Automatic annotation (TrEMBL):
Names of required cofactors: a divalent metal cation
Protein name: Sensor-like histidine kinase SenX3
InterPro entries associated with the record: BphY/WalK/GraS-like, HATPase_C_sf, HATPase_dom, His_kinase_dom, HisK_dim/P_dom, HisK_dim/P_sf, Sig_transdc_His_kin-like_C
Keyword tags: Kinase, Membrane, Phosphoprotein, Transferase, Transmembrane, Transmembrane helix, Two-component regulatory system
Pfam families: HATPase_c, HisKA
């Protein structure tokens, strides 16, 4: 082997040794960086930005379950930086994630507000590093409640419609049987008319509620005078109030305006007044008060009736729910009035509040965003009428 070949061989060995040393250095540097990341107290790059962008409760926790950083919505589930995860279910899920890298489970967590109340959440924990884990919890409580409401709506609607339809069928058969007895026929016919009216009222309210819940409705918004809304709502219930021996008393501020659909607001306030009359004793009062501040208009309807228990107050706005079943049947209530009120007010950007105590009466308050009184153009009708009268007089003279 000559010297040239020896030189080339030496160069090749040197290159191989250099590459090997470089690879060893790269592996060592990466291992060092990995160890530093695992032992570092700093979160991985971008995690804080991700947490800030999340609308759902989320948190970064270490392998022991201590919370390090949270999203803005995480405090609703009791996540506090520096403290361990409060719920055993989440701690158990973290143990699974430590072994598998990721874990997902739906679970119920206590709300911490009222005994026995729970939240349904869908929790997912994923590994960020060997030390850090990302926990995202999606609250399914409202979704579950809406699903239950849909099922209740279908069930209750079927039941409510079946009652008058069945009654009409039986009464029709009774008329056929009593065809030779005019008095009985008239009595059964009168009851058929009452059941048909009840059926029409029920279907009409169901359709109205469906329209309120549709996204493409309420397109005829305009400036609405609260004075006109309250006056119309009182007038629509005046006959009922007189027959029940209940006095309607109006008070409060005048000249307030909101943005909305006047007819829908009249029906919402009218439903509250009708309920107040139905649940009030004879010789009592129902007050309708209006108060405005810089931001909103409050319309309060107060009765001196039987009141609503605390257990029923959270459910009175549900469709077909009746706190007093016997009285509702006696008064012909459909159980949809307060649900219509709630959806009508929500579609106007407002809210409905309730205060009540058994045997002390109830107060339902509609709160709507206030607007400034619109500027009215000068009335020109008299001038126009005068011109028309003048033209007519000229023609007559001609």
């Amino acid at each position: 082997m000559d010297s040239t070949q020896l030189v080339l061989l030496a160069l090749l060995l040197g290159a191989l040794i250099g590459v090997g040393i470089t690879l060893l250095l790269v592996v060592a540097v990466r291992a060092r960086e990995r160890i530093l990341r695992e032992n570092s107290d700093a979160l991985p790059t971008g995690v804080s930005a991700v947490l800030a962008a999340l609308d759902e409760p989320a948190a970064v926790v270490d392998s022991s379950g201590t919370v390090l950083e949270i999203s803005h919505a995480a405090d609703s589930l009791g996540f506090v930086p520096g403290r361990p995860l409060e719920y055993p279910g989440l701690r158990d899920l973290l143990k699974v994630a430590r072994g598998a890298g990721t874990a997902h489970e739906s679970m119920r967590l206590p709300t911490g507000k009222l005994k026995g109340q729970e939240r349904l959440i869908s929790a997912r924990i994923s590994r960020l590093t060997e030390r850090w884990f990302l926990l995202i919890a999606r609250d399914l409580t409202e979704q579950e409640r809406l699903q239950q409401m849909r099922q209740d709506f279908i069930s209750n609607t079927s039941h409510e419609l079946k009652t008058p339809v069945g009654a009409i069928t039986l009464l029709a058969e009774a008329i056929d049987t009593a065809a030779d007895e005019p008095e009985e026929v008239r009595r059964f016919a009168s009851r058929i008319s009452a059941e048909a009216e009840r059926l029409g009222q029920l279907t009409g309210r169901i359709m109205h509620l469906s329209r309120l819940q549709a996204t493409d409705e309420l397109t005829t918004f305009g400036d609405v005078a609260i004075d006109e809304v309250v006056t119309a709502a009182i007038e629509s219930n005046a006959v009922q109030a007189d027959s029940e021996g209940v006095e309607l008393v109006r008070g409060g501020d005048r000249g307030l305006y909101v943005r909305g659909d006047a007819q829908i607001l009249i029906e919402a306030v009218g439903n509250l007044i009708a309920n107040a009359i139905a649940y009030s004793p004879r010789n009592s009062r129902v007050g309708i008060g209006v108060r405005g501040d810089g931001e909103a208009v409050d319309i309060a309807v107060t009765d001196q009736g039987i009141g609503i228990s605390e257990a029923d107050q959270e459910r009175v706005f549900e469709r077909f729910y009746r706190a007093d079943q016997a009285r509702s049947r006696r008064t012909g209530g459909t159980g949809l009035g307060l649900s219509i009120v709630k959806h009508a007010v929500y579609r106007h950007g407002g809210e409905v509040k309730l205060w009540s105590q058994p045997d002390r009466g109830s107060t339902f308050t509609i709160r709507l965003p206030r607007i400034e009184a619109p500027v009215r153009e000068p009335e020109r009708r008299p001038k126009s009428s005068a011109r028309k009268a003048a033209r007519s007089l000229k023609k007559e003279k001609a």
